[in-house]
Amino acid sequence: MFSSSGELTPREVAIQLLARREYSRAELACKLQQKSFQPDEITVCLDTLAEQNLQSDERFAESFIRSRIFRGQGVIRIKGELRQRGVDQETLRTALASVEEREAVDWFELACDTLRRRFSTPGDTPKERAKRERFLATRGFDFEQIRYALSCL
């Protein structure tokens, strides 16, 4: 498991990380840089892992999207977080479409369910309604979804 010097190789470190959860290529590159591996070593390692299907940005994105939907997060926030994790626009779009189709995601209903878990009424005052709107907006729902969710309570 160790290289001749007793240190872990970039591949071994990456495999240990991937054994716990999916990572984007960019996240793995960052983790390996933190371990002081050389950029060329990291690139070769990540290319090999991708070729062997041990690391996949699309699989990472799909897993990430499902977990965030389960947490009651909207598409705006999910897309933003995936971009922060280095997932490119095309991979993001493909993964989102795949999960939406497979899981029959209804963002409007998800906004309703998310709001219901936190609040029992749409709010009696403009201040209370604004609080609910901010809650959903920070969760990543758009204006139409927020308006729909408030009408559900």
Automatic annotation (TrEMBL):
Keywords: Cytoplasm. Residues 11-48 form the RecX first three-helical domain. Pfam families: RecX_HTH1, RecX_HTH2, RecX_HTH3. One of its GO terms (cellular component) is cytoplasm. Transmembrane segments: none annotated. Residues 56-96 form the RecX second three-helical domain. It is found in: Cytoplasm. It comes from the Bacteria. GO terms for biological process: regulation of DNA repair. Residues 106-150 form the RecX third three-helical domain. Modulates RecA activity. Belongs to the RecX family. This is Regulatory protein RecX. The lineage of its organism: Bacteria, Pseudomonadati, Pseudomonadota, Gammaproteobacteria, Oceanospirillales.
